[in-house]
Design brief:
It is a single chain. The chain is mainly α. It has 15 helices and no strands. Helix 3 packs antiparallel against helix 8, helix 6 crosses helix 10 and helix 10 packs across helix 11.
Length: 345
């Protein structure tokens, strides 16, 4: 697939995130404090709309499943670690370059931490692999229903989609009570669902969204750590995702420039409120958070876009388990790292 086309797809991804404000530290960290449900309700609506659209695409033979394998230990522990990193950092692997494009310096240090995390994971991969547990296979609702698009499979998929959509709008009512009334998340969610369905189309990309494999790929390539099994296993995904995120970063810059919101900045309101005004402290925690984020993503084999969204749209068991444990780690860290130790005035 042409480089320009992949970058363009990433540009659309980055523009959608920018439009909905999903790349913002305050938005993501706000969810870990249970003060802003924009990310949660957007993901739920993406899964609801996306699973229905993908169902049509799969039934018509225009797409293939791309299910991530389910490692009982790797998927759960990786999800927990990923959630911890996401809470501390306030970004996801896919939102980091978007925010960097908009001038966020903490996102830059998060990326550096992520690259280091990816490099370390590559170096110790032979030691980690036996600890991931047994590969239980690429389990999904489809495989559990006998690998057929039966009436039962279709009905259950529709019911899950309805639950997700209704849940998203219920969370919006909570946001409205907290004076977060913007409805941009709806357009963002529908746009992300459409984009991912288009990426699944076997006549085009024939793959889902993803971001975290780019970090070990780029880090390993820079340092020349390429003569190993892990690098060879991720190189194809790593190249695609790196180009995709370049497009996303460019979109972040263009959006910020077009809306007059570009600003070189390292500190954001929620961080200052809970952790204080020390810039070195924010840089250090951004590096740590980025490291933990990508290390956890690599243990689990995916991240927010590649696992929760793409896998969730396919109703993959590994992705649902990953999502559950990600939010356990994310919300627990939000309490202990932020809420419980709020910076006193």
């Amino acid at each position: 697939m042409g480089v320009i086309v992949i970058i363009f797809a990433g540009f659309i991804f980055g523009w959608l995130l920018s439009f909905g404000g999903l790349n913002k530290y305050n938005t993501i960290a706000g969810l870990s404090m249970l003060k802003d449900f924009t990310v949660a309700k957007t993901i739920m609506l993406v899964l609801g709309v996306g699973s229905l659209l993908l169902l049509l695409e799969l039934v018509n033979g225009n797409a293939h499943f791309h299910i991530k394998p389910f490692y009982l230990i790797g998927t759960t522990i990786g999800g927990l670690i990923f959630g911890i990193g996401m809470s501390i950092l306030g970004y996801c692997p896919g939102t980091l370059p978007v925010s960097l494009g908009q001038g966020s310096i903490d996102a830059f240090f998060g990326i550096i931490g992520g690259l280091i995390g990816g490099i370390v994971y590559t170096l110790i991969y032979p030691l980690i692999l036996p600890l991931l547990g047994t590969d239980l296979g690429k389990i999904s609702l489809y495989s559990l229903m006998g690998d057929t698009f039966s009436i039962g499979y279709i009905i259950i998929t529709i019911l899950i989609a309805i639950v997700m959509i209704v849940g998203a709008f219920l969370l919006h009512q909570v946001d409205v009570k907290n004076d977060i009334k913007s409805k941009r998340w709806i357009l963002t969610a529908v746009g992300l669902a459409l984009l991912n369905v288009l990426l699944f189309y076997k006549g085009w990309m024939n793959r889902p969204m993803g971001a975290s494999a780019s970090y070990p790929y780029v880090g390993d390539t820079i340092l020349g750590i390429t003569n190993n099994s892990y690098y060879h296993a991720i190189v194809n995904s790593g190249v695609w995702e790196a180009l995709f995120l370049i497009g996303a970063m460019f979109a972040g810059f263009v959006y910020a420039a077009a809306t007059g919101t570009f600003q070189v900045k390292i500190m954001y309101g929620r961080w200052v409120e809970y952790k204080g005004v020390s810039k070195p402290k924010r840089i250090i925690w951004a590096l740590i958070g980025g490291f933990i984020l990508i290390f956890g993503a690599r243990i689990a084999g995916g991240c927010t876009s590649g696992h929760i969204i793409s896998g969730g749209m396919q109703i993959a068991i590994s992705s649902y388990v990953f999502a559950i444990f990600t939010f356990i780690g994310f919300l627990t860290t939000g309490y202990f790292f932020y809420t419980r130790h709020k910076k006193s005035d």
